[in-house]
């Protein structure tokens, strides 16, 4: 995994983890504010705490993804899920393909 791929994967994991962490511990306000606002908005969103928790969760998940990718258990270069389309130098599995035989 290159450093660029690692950063992109981390950002994708972080963004997904943010939506997992956001609803944790939120409670709506009991009475709608008189100056306007939505009653369903959380009273204390604790966003800094949630951003820190998201960062820690994303780092743990990223380390797991990194370990799996570097171990060779999952590879997008080999195996049945590998890309074999145009521009690929991968050899297709199966019997050797040679000139047509009569």
Automatic annotation (TrEMBL):
Keyword Transmembrane helix attached: yes
Q: Which UniProt keywords apply?
A: Membrane, Transmembrane, Transmembrane helix
Q: Which InterPro entries does the record associate with it?
A: DUF1467
Q: Name one Pfam family in it.
A: DUF1467
Segments spanning the bilayer are 7-26, 46-68
Q: What is this protein called?
A: DUF1467 family protein
Organism field: Falsiroseomonas tokyonensis
């Amino acid at each position: 995994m290159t450093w660029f791929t690692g950063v992109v994967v981390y950002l994708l994991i972080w963004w997904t983890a943010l939506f997992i962490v956001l609803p944790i511990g939120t409670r709506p306000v009991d009475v709608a504010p008189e100056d306007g606002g939505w009653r369903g908005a959380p009273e204390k969103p604790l966003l800094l705490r949630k951003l820190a928790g998201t960062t820690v969760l994303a780092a743990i998940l990223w380390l797991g993804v990194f370990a799996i990718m570097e171990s060779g258990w999952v590879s997008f270069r080999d195996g049945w899920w590998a890309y074999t389309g145009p521009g690929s130098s991968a050899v297709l599995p199966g019997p050797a393909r040679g000139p047509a035989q009569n």
